[in-house]
Write a structure and sequence with these properties.
Aspartate Aminotransferase, domain 1; 13 helices; disordered N terminus
C-alpha cells in the first residue's frame, strides 16, 4: 500500500494503481471514473481473492467433509467475521449475508414487517430514499393495509428532521431511512432519528448502501435495529450484501425464503429451522462474491476509513466549488452535511446528452433519476447528471470533468 501524500491542503490517497479497471483509455482518453455511487471499481486484492477461490477452493460451503469444502467454508465464514467487525455488530449471528441492499430491505419488510403490520398502522420513510427503500414498503403496505408516510426534504436537499420526528406517532410501526442519499449525497442525522424513534418504541432500519464506502459505521453506536448495505458499492463484487439486525429481532422473525441450509430437519409434517443467521440464508450462496467482499473489507481497513473520509470531504468541496463557477450550471442538492456525490444540470442540455459527450472524453458519470424518482419530482426535474467520488479520485479527475462540461456547453451553444 502506497503512503498518503500531501498536496496543498488536500491529503490525497495514492491508491489509483490498486484498481486495474482505471488503467484504460475510453475513446482515446484516460478513464475518469465518477460513477462509484452506482458501482465502485474493485481493487486487485478483491479480484485476486475471487480468482483464488475459483481456481483452488471452489466447492459448496457447510455441507462437505472434503478439503475443498472446508477451505470454502472457512473463507466464506471468515468474511462474515470480517463484516461483523467492520460495522461493530455484537455477534456474528447478527450478520445475514444477502445479495445486496435490495434483498436485505425486502427481507425485513416481509419477515419483520408483514407479520406485525395491519390496517391503521404506518411505515415512515423519507423523500430522499432510493427505490429499494420505497417499493418493498409499498408492497408490504398493500399486503397488510398499512399506510406508507413520507417525511419531507428541504430545498437544499436536507431532510426536515423536525417534521420527521413529528410524524413518529403511535401508529408508526417501523422507520426506514437512508444513511446517505445516493442522488444528492445528503448525510442524514441517523443517531438523532434513531433516538427519537426509540423514544416512541419504533424500530429503525438504515439503508447504508452509500454510507459504508465513505465513513466508519458502528451499528451499536448508531443504535439502529437494522442496517443494510451492498458489496459492490464498497469495492466488492456485485450480488453481495449484508443485513445487520439486532439478534433479539432476528430471532423472533420467521424465515423469508425456504430451501437448503436454512433448516436443521425437514419432514412432511413439519420443518425445524436453522439457527441464526442461517435461517435467512436459503440455498447455495454467492460464495465467490462473499469471499471477495471479505477482501474488500480488508482493503478498506488497510487504507483506513478515516483517511478515505477526509480525502473525499476535501475533494467534494473542490468539486462543488469548481462546478459552481461554471456559468449556467445548477447544483442539485446543497445540504450542509454531504458525502461524495454532487448532482447538477447544465443549462438546457439534457443529462443524457451531457453524459454522452463526457463519455467521449473518457469521463464516466451517471445520468437520469438515479433510482430516486421522488427526489427528482421534488425538484421538478426529469433527472440530473451525477458525479460521485471514491477513494481513487483526485483533483485532476475534477478538473477534467469541469473542462469536459465547458466543452459540452460550447457544442450546444
Amino acid at each position: 500500500m502506497k503512503p498518503l501524500k500531501a498536496e496543498s491542503d488536500d491529503a490525497l490517497l495514492n491508491v489509483r494503481d490498486d484498481f486495474p479497471a482505471l488503467d484504460q483509455a475510453i475513446h482515446g482518453h484516460p478513464l475518469v471514473y465518477l460513477d462509484s455511487a452506482a458501482s465502485a471499481q474493485q481493487p486487485q486484492a478483491v479480484i485476486d481473492a475471487v480468482a483464488n477461490y475459483q481456481q483452488s477452493d471452489h466447492a459448496n460451503v457447510h455441507r462437505g467433509v472434503h478439503t475443498l469444502s472446508h477451505r470454502a467454508t472457512e473463507a466464506y465464514e471468515g468474511a462474515r467475521d470480517k463484516l461483523r467487525a467492520f460495522i461493530n455488530a455484537a455477534s456474528r449471528s447478527e450478520i445475514v449475508l444477502t445479495s445486496g441492499t435490495t434483498e436485505s430491505i425486502n427481507l425485513v419488510a416481509q419477515s419483520y414487517g408483514r407479520p406485525r403490520l395491519q390496517r391503521g398502522d404506518q411505515v415512515l420513510i423519507t423523500h430522499l430514499e432510493h427505490h429499494s427503500n420505497i417499493v418493498p414498503w409499498q408492497l408490504v403496505c398493500e399486503q397488510t393495509g398499512a399506510e406508507l408516510i413520507v417525511a419531507p426534504i428541504n430545498e437544499d436537499g436536507s431532510l426536515d428532521v423536525e417534521r420527521m420526528i413529528e410524524l413518529m406517532t403511535e401508529a408508526v410501526r417501523i422507520v426506514a431511512v437512508g444513511h446517505v442519499s445516493n442522488a444528492l449525497g445528503t448525510v442524514n442525522p441517523v443517531r438523532r432519528i434513531v433516538d427519537a424513534a426509540h423514544e416512541c418504541d419504533i424500530p429503525v432500519l438504515v439503508d447504508g448502501a452509500q454510507g459504508v464506502p465513505h465513513m466508519a459505521v458502528d451499528v451499536q453506536a448508531l443504535g439502529c435495529d437494522f442496517y443494510v448495505f451492498s458489496g459492490h458499492k464498497m469495492f466488492g463484487p456485485t450480488g453481495t450484501g449484508v443485513l445487520y439486525g439486532r439478534e433479539a429481532l432476528l430471532d423472533a422473525m420467521p424465515p423469508w425464503k425456504g430451501g437448503g441450509d436454512m433448516i436443521l430437519e425437514v419432514r412432511f409434517d413439519g420443518t425445524v429451522f436453522n439457527e441464526l443467521p442461517y435461517k435467512f440464508e436459503a440455498g447455495t450462496p454467492n460464495i465467490a462474491g462473499v469471499i471477495g467482499l471479505g477482501a474488500a473489507v480488508d482493503y478498506l481497513k488497510r487504507v483506513k476509513l478515516d483517511r478515505i473520509a477526509a480525502h473525499e470531504t476535501a475533494l467534494l468541496a473542490y468539486l462543488t466549488q469548481q462546478l459552481s463557477e461554471i456559468d449556467g450550471l445548477r447544483l442539485i442538492g446543497t445540504a450542509p452535511d454531504k458525502a461524495s456525490v454532487q448532482s447538477f444540470l447544465v443549462g438546457d442540455i439534457h443529462p443524457h446528452d451531457l453524459g454522452t459527450i463526457l463519455d467521449h472524453q473518457g469521463i464516466a458519470i451517471r445520468t437520469g433519476h438515479h433510482c430516486a424518482m421522488p427526489v427528482m419530482q421534488r425538484f421538478d426535474i426529469p433527472g440530473t447528471a451525477r458525479a460521485s467520488l471514491a477513494l481513487y479520485n483526485d483533483r485532476d479527475d475534477v478538473d477534467r470533468l469541469v473542462s469536459a462540461v465547458r466543452k459540452a456547453q460550447e457544442i450546444f451553444a
